[in-house]
Amino acid sequence: MPDAPAAAEVVVYGTARCPYCIRARALLDRKGISYDDIRLEQQPERRQEMDRLSNRRTVPQIFIDGVHIGGSDELHELEYTGKLDGLLGTGNTHKADK
Fold first, then answer.
1. Which bin fits 31, alpha (ψ -120 to 50), beta or left (φ > 0)?
2. Complete edge-to-edge strand list for the sheet that includes strand 61-64
3. What is the pTM (predicted TM-score) of this model?
4. Relative to the CA of 24, which of 16, 34, 45, 88 has its CA 20 to 30 Å away?
């Protein structure tokens, strides 16, 4: 029996009160995806790391398996186009109905 693909490593740099951060985390939570939630107000020293890795200063910044995918809008676009599940390794790669 073949092994199921391993779930992707997801990292979200954000803050607790940012509405875009809340929206991105809510999508991942709805999908049952575990992620490393780096709260920049609690770990301000990690902001430089986020800036260096993403070349952006706004939050959230989201990485899947070390690849920067962007922020909340990009995460939701991947979900809408049916590409997010493939990146996450969940195997549900169907295209969303329009």
1. alpha
2. 36-39, 10-14, 61-64, 67-70
3. 0.86
4. 45
